[in-house]
Amino acid sequence: MDHVTLAESVRADAAEWDRAGGVPTEVVRAVAEAGFPAADVPTRVVAEHAVRLHGAAGIAPDSAVGRFHRDAAVMGIVEGADEVAEQHLGGNALRGGS
Questions:
Q1: pLDDT of the residue at 27
Q2: CA–CA–CA angle 16, 13, 77 (5° rounding)
Q3: What values do phi and psi take at 39, rounded to 5?
Q4: Phi, psi of 97 (to 5 degrees)
Q5: Between the CA atoms of 43, 44, 48 and 53, what dihedral angle is there, to the nearest 10 degrees?
Q6: Contact status, residue 82 vs residue 40, Cβ threshold 8 Å
């Protein structure tokens, strides 16, 4: 599926959910489950490996690795606090959710 088709599908789903009174709980849960690792993994990979490999140059303001490190760290903020996501997903798992 190309990006345009995907965007149209998401737009149609959002309009349908809006008419139905909101986003289904399963969708909210799926987004939370996808968002946490999507923000967490790049942060760890870049922070722990690329920055070490490049040393001080890895955190220089004009370096690509430094930029990737900063962008990955911001994703954790954009997606929501990591601790909140961990608590939500952990609580869901303890209650027997998928």
A1: 75
A2: 120
A3: -90, -35
A4: -75, 165
A5: -50
A6: yes
pTM of the predicted model, to two decimals?
Answer: 0.41
pLDDT tens digits for range 11-67: 888 788 778 887 777 777 777 677 667 667 777 777 778 888 888 887 788 888 888
d(CA 77, CA 68): 15
Contact 33, 59 (CB under 8 A): no
8 Å CB contact between 38 and 72:
no
Question: What are the structural domain ranges in the chain?
Answer: 24-94
Distance of CA 5 to the CA centre of its chain: 22
Return the DSSP state at 5: H
